[in-house]
Amino acid sequence: MREPDRIATSEVLEAERLEEWPRADAEQPTPAPEPGADEHVAPHPVVLVDPDAATLLAVWSLRRQGNPLHLLSPRRFEPALWARGVQRHLLPDPEHHPLAWNARLLELAAHLEPRPLLIPCSRRGRELLRASRPTLEPHYALAHLESLDLHGYDAEEFRTEKALRRTVLRGEPAFEVQLVVDAAGCCTGACILAWVAGVPPLVLVTSVEGEDVLERSLAWVRTRQLRGYARLIWGPDRFGRIDLQAAGTIPGNTWALAAEDGVDFPSLWAASLTGIAVEPRRAGQQLSRSFALAKPGLQEEAPLLSLRPPWSSRDPLPFLAGILRSFARS
Predict the structure, then answer these.
(1) Is 58 helix (H, G, I), strand (E, B) or coil?
(2) What is the pLDDT of residues 82-134, one digit of tens each?
(3) Pairing mode, if any, of strands 187-197 and 86-90?
(4) Confidence of residue 8 (pLDDT cuts 50, 70, 90)
(5) Order of strands across the sheet that contains 46-49
(6) CA angle at 289 for the pair 286 and 295, rounded to the nearest 5°
(7) Angle between helices 265-274 and 55-64 (to 10 degrees)
(8) Pick from 56, 47, 37: which is nearest to 114 by CA?
(9) Among candidates 327, 251, 321, which has minimal Cα distance to 82?
(10) What angle (nearest 5°) sits at the alpha carbon of residue 55, between those of residues 54 and 56?
(11) What are the C-alpha distances in Å from 259 to residues 160, 180, 247, 282?
């Protein structure tokens, strides 16, 4: 719960305003193809597995680019599932009925051209695709299924949301690096966000240049031959040195902040995975915001930033689905 007596009214209004995605009908910058690129190539269909709150921004971005979109989810009121132009597929729980998901994916692959891109939107979705990889790989371009190592352990065990929350609430600065790398190892998009704790329960975030932490992030990603999107959390270690705290390839809510600062990560991500050359983009470093912490507690794995779908007369169903989902949870 918020504590209005501890926060200025203007700060509360700013926090509430930030709990919305960039509007669906707003003009967002999209990466331009490089000169000489074939502009007549049909966009690749994109299949998103187990979408979450961050997926709605990807749906809006890829829809603007003309990518046919299919979303598979076990949650009827997932907002991204109800976005305009999306083919939605409601399925049972993937942990208990993986064969139903495999059957639907194989059925879809027979009707999608050119070769569709298959992307997990959650850890659960990634585990499903990893287990089904031999069956699905002949039909899909699979993305982000390989394990990454960090300090000799599987990087997935170092949860990005948990590491970001833990560092900020300890009163230490955290740097969140989001980037996209293409098949040649070139960085086509980057945004560095600096996080610090404000007056409780506010958190402050600023887009910064961060060349040193970006170069270290790119070196880490290139060493592992990663292609596509990556999210890395840097913070002080016990000796005060800035060290990598967590890394992953599942996007979080904060790529909405990157979009506000001029980097359309979903479209850059899809371009890097399908081999489409685009002009590199860097954040404009114009972002400086404060907002209320989504949930209290150091051990929570919930995102620091909780966003709700905004109302749009052009695409109203995600907003309505978000309302219905909140009632279903209560």
Answers:
(1) helix
(2) 999 999 999 999 999 999 999 999 999 999 999 999 999 998 999 999 999 99
(3) unpaired
(4) very low
(5) 86-90, 69-73, 46-49, 117-120, 141-142
(6) 145
(7) 70
(8) 47
(9) 321
(10) 95
(11) 19, 13, 20, 11
